[in-house]
């Protein structure tokens, strides 16, 4: 991942906010919002991609039609930092693991996972507990989710219809 020691220009922040809200937005619409031509928007986006600021474009899928009924957070305590790299390598191979974070507190890592049912969760926990260095796991099941987003509050977005700045709203 690229280092971002310099502050982004407001125009780039606005472009990022617009693409984050709708990655399929036409560059002509982006240009209208930020006061640039389509080629200039394209150039800004290309540079933001090259710098690793824009890291991809993704469809957000509803997990329920695919049968993923279980969401859980798993605290994993690893006995030594010598095992962290191996643990992360194993987690990358597990498709149920959506996120893996090194943390402070009661455990060294926190995983966000999705599985189809409790049997598949139990199988995943068994696989995690067999990884060298894992001392224990603590699993918290999610009962309901009210906010789930990767959206960053990067810049006010100017509404092209009335010119007013509005903060990007999280998806429902």
Describe what this molecule looks like in 3D:
The protein is α+β, with helices and mostly antiparallel strands and 172 residues long. It contains five helices and six strands, in the order αααβαββαβββ. The strands form two sheets. Strands 2-3-1-4 form a four-stranded antiparallel sheet, with helices on one face. A hairpin with a 6-residue loop joins strand 2 and strand 3. The longest helix is centred in the N-terminal third of the chain and has 13 residues, at 38-50. The relative contact order is 0.17.
Question: Which residue ranges are poorly predicted, with pLDDT under 50 across at least 5 consecutive positions?
Answer: 168-172
Supply the number of helical segments.
5
Q: What sort of overall outline do the alpha carbons produce when their principal axes are compared?
A: elongated
Tell me the total number of β-strands.
6
Distance between the termini: 30 Å
Taken in chain order, the helices and strands follow as: HHHEHEEHEEE
């Amino acid at each position: 991942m690229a280092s971002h020691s310099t502050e982004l220009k407001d125009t780039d922040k606005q472009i990022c906010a617009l693409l984050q809200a709708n990655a399929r937005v036409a560059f002509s619409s982006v240009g209208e919002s930020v006061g640039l031509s389509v080629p200039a928007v394209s150039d800004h986006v290309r540079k933001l991609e090259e710098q690793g600021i824009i890291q991809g474009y993704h469809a957000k899928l509803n997990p329920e039609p695919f049968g993923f009924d279980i969401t859980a957070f798993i605290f994993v305590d690893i006995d030594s930092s010598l095992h962290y790299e191996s643990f992360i390598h194993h987690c990358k191979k597990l498709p149920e693991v959506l996120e893996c974070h090194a943390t402070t507190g009661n455990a060294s890592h926190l995983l966000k996972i999705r599985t189809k049912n409790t049997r598949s969760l139990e199988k995943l926990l068994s696989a995690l507990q067999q990884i060298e260095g894992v001392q224990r796991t603590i699993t918290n099941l999610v009962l309901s989710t009210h906010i789930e987003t990767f959206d960053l509050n990067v810049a006010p977005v100017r509404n092209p219809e009335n010119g007013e700045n509005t903060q990007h709203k999280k998806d429902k």
